[in-house]
Design goal:
Layout: H1 2-15, H2 24-29, H3 36-49, E1 53-55, H4 56-60, H5 75-91, E2 94-97, H6 104-114, E3 118-120, E4 127-130, H7 147-159, H8 169-172
Parallel strand pairs: 2-4
Antiparallel strand pairs: 1-3
Amino acid sequence: MQRYIEQLIEDLHQATWGLKPPHPIWEESQADPDNECELDDISYIEEFVEGEEIPVSSITGIDLNLLPPEEQLTDEQKTLLSIKLETLLEYFHFHLEFPESYPHHLRYHYIRKFWTEKQVALSFGTCHIEFCEYDETQCPFPGYCKTCYEVDQQMKHDEQKPGLNDPYNELIMPF
C-alpha cells in the first residue's frame, strides 16, 4: 500500500499542472483578481450565476477510485493523504472548514466524501466547504468544535426577552 500512496501523491502533484484557463467572464468583465472587491463579485457570479456543477474528480483530475477506502489505510497514511488532498483542493479554490484542532487522520473521511460531490470550478477566490450544520446535537466534530456551542448560546440569548439583568437591554430599551 505504501508504494501506491507514494504514486498517488505524485499524481496529486501532477494534477496542478493542467490548470484550466479562467472562465471567460473574467476577461469580459476585465476584473482585477488582485482587487478584493472585484474578486468577490466576479467569483460570486462565476460560481452562482455562470457556474455549472461538475464532479470534484473532474475539477481536480483525480478520480475517487484512486483514493483508497479509509479502512485500508493506517492513521499515518490518512494523515499524509489528507494534508496533500487539502493542499490540492486549495489549489483549485476549495477550502474545507474543519475545527483547527481536528486531527488530519480523521479529516480523510470527509475529504473522500467531498470527492463524491459536484461543485463549480472556480478561476479565482475561495469556495468554503462546511461539514457542520451548527447544531450541537448533530455536530460531526464532537469534542473539537466550539462553533456549535457558540451558535447555540447565541440563539438562546436571542430568544430571551430583554430583562433588567440583560446587558444588552440598554440597546433594546434605551429608557
